[in-house]
Every structure is written in structure tokens, then in C-alpha cells.
Amino acid sequence: MSEAVDEKVKDKKSLISQLEEEGDVAADYLEGLLDIADLDGDIDIDVENDRAALAIAGGKLNHLVGGRGEVLDALQELTRLAVQTSLGERSRLMLDIDSFRSDKKAELAELAKETAKEVKKSGEAIKLRPMNAFERKVVHDTIQEIGLTSESEGEDPDRCVVVLPE
């Protein structure tokens, strides 16, 4: 029993060290991009939900987010590719710029809670607007925490979440 616990601790430490390495590689890549674009920004590296998480904070970075986060999504994919090229492993890192994703996460969690209330009250399923994968995951996680179920429906870019009654 003790060996199994020791092995899990070793595995967790190994995962964290791998994710920290991903974060370092990603930060170097992003620093290079910021330098090329002559932009200032502070990069924070963290590990959240078993993935590397990077946040760039600094003034005047809105154009790196885009209107609905499309530029941020593209930068995240480029950064993931840079990490994969460097380390040979597929990365699931998350990138946030000027708190766009964290603010969006709070907004979507609130939408999910309000929708769950409506579904419980009416007993009818509610279909939400089309969302990207990140947005759908936030809604699904929040709905699950509330105790209801949800499913994704449709094809990208029109894929959306349907919140189901009990």
C-alpha cells in the first residue's frame, strides 16, 4: 500500500516538473514574440488542473486577444506547437492575456448558473449560443458542479451547449 502511495507522489511530482518545463519553454517563446512585436508584458507561469498555465499582463495587449478571443486562441495554438516542437510532447497549456480568459470564465460560470436555474424551474432543456471548446468546458464543468447534465451539440463553429433538466 505504501509503495502505491509513493508511486503516485512520484508520478505527481514528475507531472508537475514536466508541466513547469512546458511553462518555461512557452514563456521563452512568448517573450520572443513580444520582443519581435516590440510589446511589453509580464509573463506568469503556473500549473492549474494538470496543465501549464501562462498569463501575460501588461498594458495595451488587447489586440493580442481579438474581439472574441480568436487571436488569443491562435497564439495559444502557436505556443503549444512551439512547446511540442521543443519537447516532443503534445501540450495542453492554457494562455491568458490581460485576464481575458479568467474574466470570460467568471462570466460563463454565471451564465451557466442562471441557465441551470431556468432549466430547474421550467423542466425544459435550454440550448446556449455557439461557443468555442474553452467556453463549452467552463459551462459543462459549472453545470456538473450544480448537479445537472449538459451536452454539446452541432459542429464547430456552431457547436453549443444544451443544459438538460434532471
General description of the model:
It is a single chain. This protein has 166 residues and is α+β, with helices and mostly antiparallel strands. A hairpin with a 2-residue loop joins strand 1 and strand 2. The model has no long low-confidence stretch (mean pLDDT 92). The protein has helices spanning 2-36, 70-87, 100-122, 133-146, and strands at residues 42-48, 51-57, 94-97, 126-130, 149-153, 160-164. The chain has two domains: 2-98, GMP Synthetase, Chain A, domain 3 (2-Layer Sandwich); 103-164, Ribosomal Protein S8, Chain: A, domain 1 (2-Layer Sandwich), CATH 3.30.1370.50. The chain is built from four helices and six strands; from the N terminus they run αββαβαβαββ. It has a three-stranded mixed beta sheet, sandwiched between helices.
Q: How are the SSEs placed, and which strands pair?
A:
Layout: H1 2-36, E1 42-48, E2 51-57, H2 70-87, E3 94-97, H3 100-122, E4 126-130, H4 133-146, E5 149-153, E6 160-164
Parallel strand pairs: 2-3
Antiparallel strand pairs: 1-2, 4-6, 5-6
Helix pairs in contact: 1-2, 3-4
Question: Short description, anyone?
Answer:
It contains four helices and six strands, in the order H-E-E-H-E-H-E-H-E-E. It has 166 residues and is α+β, with helices and mostly antiparallel strands.
How many individual domains?
Answer: 2
CATH superfamily of the largest domain: K homology (KH) domain
Shape: globular
CATH class of the largest domain: Alpha Beta
The proportion of residues in beta strands is: 15-25%
